[in-house]
Amino acid sequence: MQRILAADIGGTYSRFGFFELLGEADEPRLLSIARLPTQESESLHALLELLFSEQRPFAASSCDLAVLAVPGPVQGRFCRPPNIKWNIDLYDITKVGLGRGALLNDFAAQAFASRSRAVRDARVLQASRSDARLVVGGAVAVIGAGTGLGHCALVPDGRNGFLAVPSEAGHVAFPFVGDNEHAYGEYVRRATGLAYCHGDAVVSGSGLSRLHAFLAGEVLTPAMLAPRLPNFPHTVEWFARFYARAARNYALSVLALGGVYLCGGVAAKNPILVEHPAFMEEFRLSPSHHDLLSGLPVMLNINEDSGVFGAAIFGSQRLRRRA
Hints:
By secondary structure, this protein is an alpha/beta fold. The chain folds into 2 domains: 2-113 and 305-322, Nucleotidyltransferase, domain 5 (2-Layer Sandwich); 122-300, 3-Layer(aba) Sandwich (Hexokinase, domain 1). Helix content is 34%, strand content 23%. The protein has 12 helices and 14 strands. The chain has helices at 44-51, 106-113, 178-192, 199-202, 205-216, 222-225, 233-254, 265-269, 272-275, 277-283, 290-294, 306-322; strands at 2-9, 13-21, 29-37, 65-70, 74-75, 78-79, 88-89, 101-105, 123-126, 140-145, 149-156, 162-167, 259-263, 298-300. A 6-stranded mixed β-sheet has the order 9-14-13-10-11-12, sandwiched between helices. A hairpin with a 5-residue loop joins strand 11 and strand 12. The longest helix is centred in the last third of the chain and has 22 residues, at 233-254. The N and C termini lie close together (12 Å).
């Protein structure tokens, strides 16, 4: 038996999952999850000290591998998260007795989570066509609107495992269509000061608020707007089309025959934005690949702990290959 500490370090909260890896083919078994406020700690070391200041399923010294999913670009053992006041260095885990460790991007963890029990309650937006050739062994596209618009692909590695392929597609110029949408794009560009309008500014929490201000003329935070969304069908329809367009373009870019998973707080908290008929209508819209897109499974992952499960899957793959 091996033990994995799987962490999803977020800008607001950090989640820590304690897992056991029992058999060669088994998924890591969750023992418990702890949730701690990130910004109340002055460093990763302090956050880990707080974690182990209480009784946990196993001690730091008996952990075989600690995997930290982090909200920023990973550079070996180091990450400088843009929305956390301290840096993340794997050296710090040794200060609390943890030994081996690994960092991965938080959206890479979301990609690995698509192969875990974390998505067993995911909402089906479009079921897979019965042709199994579309899903077995194909790439999986994971895209999620939250503070920004995250992307990651998961592809088979040829060794009964998976390889996460990170992406910064949220910073690619957003493809507006028609005069009205281009007028909105110019509105966003002026409001944000961006040289060009990208996905992070359109398909995100702030993007939802900005879209509503453009269409309805009132400025509301995402939290204020969320309960009122059913009263604003134009805001919902426009955002649904924008989100679907981003998902369609990424699915085609990576040829996501393994399916598309939507994650992130925007849709998890407001499923109306992806369950609106305009979402699947836009997702399937393609002059050349309508049939392909119509056969891909499209799922909404509503599990807020899925990053922890993804980090554990990544960790189990690493442990098995070092055994």
